[in-house]
Protein: PLP-dependent aminotransferase family protein
Organism: Actinomadura meridiana
Amino acid sequence: MDRFRDPADLLAVLGDWMTGRGPLYRKLAAALRHAVQDGALLPGDRLPSERDLAGLLAVSRSTVVAAYDQLRSEGLVDSRQGSGTRVTERPGTPRPDGRVRGGTATPIFQRLIDGPGDLISLAFATEPAVDGLQECLLDLVRDDLPALTSDTGYHPRGLPVLLEALAERFTAMGLPTSTDQLLVTTGATQALVLAAQLYLRPGATVIVESPSWAGCLDVFRASGATLKGIPLDEEGMDVGALGKALADSPAALVYVTPTFHNPTGTLMSASRRRRIAEIAHRHEVPVLEDIAYAARLRDEQFPAPLAAFAHGAEVLTVGSLAKVVWVGLRIGWIRAPAAITERLARLKALADLGSPVLDQALAARLLPRLTELSQERAPALRRRLEHLCAQLSKGLPEWRWRVPDGGSALWVDLSGVDAQVFAQVALRHGVEVVPGAAMDPSGAHDSFLRVPYTFEEETLTELVHRLRGAWADLRGHGPAAVAAPQGG
């Protein structure tokens, strides 16, 4: 079976190939050459046709023809009538252990690996650390460091003082919690990975929101799971569609992001949380709720976590400090029934024997102030959202979006234009976007993209300027042309 029968599957391999200097065909050839040498493209892999790849990359067909010609001249690919263009049967670059390198990442994880470069990357919505973090760290070093460094350092479940702070916070949120129901993780992503290890086997079905956060979908896919998307309305996951999906076939897990949904920014209502818990209980399927995305725009009271409405349903709740405090403080947690937490703790111990103790101690100091810190950030986040909306309304009036309830990004509809094609044009204008199809297990929402508003206003203005240039390029000129290469 051809791995790249769908040309879109090649995008993660190519990355930001359009950046830098030189003719487009040479940059495309260089990206494909690197993929072959790195093992991301394997011997025998069939590449898309010149026409299909040109359409996806928003370049002229002659650009792809010239790139393939260059690779053929180097012996990296060959083309045969009826079988297309394939990577030649040459060995990949070996690792020190003798294995061939390979594997790809979505644009989100790939951007972390490659670094931002000169692009404005929309792959992540991040902000600098909160103002009080440095003072809190200095207080920790002054007051607690001697006791912490004389400790064994091994706390697979989590530092006791942090577990106690988490239990108090969950209880204050309307979800009574004891420390034996909690596990500290190295960020929310590890919590998702541990839950996937516990519940998922190859071929298992995970029900997710459609759209959903691409990084989380990757975690479930890595476990060999099949994803089934459920649409959203203004209150969250559609309970009618959820009930029908579970009645039609069993699922191993239901994954939701109620506060706030990523990428739409929807705040799930309390009644919707209750209904999802009831449906999950009826069909005996566990629910994994992710509330790590809880960046607020206003001073408002959130509904209690979905687990507060469980009434017999098995609900796991994931959170972290990343969005409120700093993404560099890699402390997350998972709250679950005590028996489930025990099993997760064993998986955690196998993974790393416990998260860093100093980070946990710092998190314990910050946790009682989490609501206050979130409220302090809200006015600046709201100003940036308003600025971005004003700039988009002025510069790109064809685009459509719903103002989010919270979170860190707009979910923008490009009025029917394929966001994967637009993404390639945007790269030429210095912007990396994540097409909506990457956030939908079915590949739908292909005319959407996620636009974070966590940048400073000056950067947001420049971002819209670049996006406007890319939009004009795509709508006004079509695919970019390339001059045919001269000589060899």
